[in-house]
Structure of Pentatricopeptide repeat-containing protein:
Amino acid sequence: MKIGRLKKGSGAVSVWELMRRKGSGADSTTYGVLIHGLCKNGHLNKALTILKEAEDQRDKLDALAHSSMVDGLSKQGRVDEALGILHQMDNHDCKLSPHVCNLLIKGFVRASKLEQEIHFFREMESKGCSPPLVVYNTLINGLCKAERFCRAYSFVKEMLKKDWKPDSITYSLLMVALDLWRQALDKGLER
């Protein structure tokens, strides 16, 4: 049974602690699987402790460990910590991927941190991680939810300039945004 698949995470920690007591040192794979399992089950503080231990041991963690931390922290609204983990990936020679960036952008959307969301999106581009359509859709979704329709549309135009073709998700997001815009106008005219 893989450690990351244990339902509660406490069993994984028990196995890990037993390994330590028996003198079996953890390697980067063990750390990565343990961190992934803990994050998936909501044990973020324990996962952060293990991440720190791995770094203290000078273990080079892979993208799975870091992306699991970014995902878990982002889902709990701890986006500043998630951003810190993302920056640590450079120290571990983990290449920035659109998938990990999208996890963080989703976190910014959940936390209603739109300016940080846009700033990070631009930073992503400057670091050579070209955002694919799914990242644009996540960004547009966040802007539409915050009723920043003109800004959302500016990203659609940017996509088109880059020859990205909007998909059904992009169009659905825009239709919802237009409906919200129409409702806002109707309410304004009623007054």
Residues 1-6 have pLDDT under 50 and may be disordered.
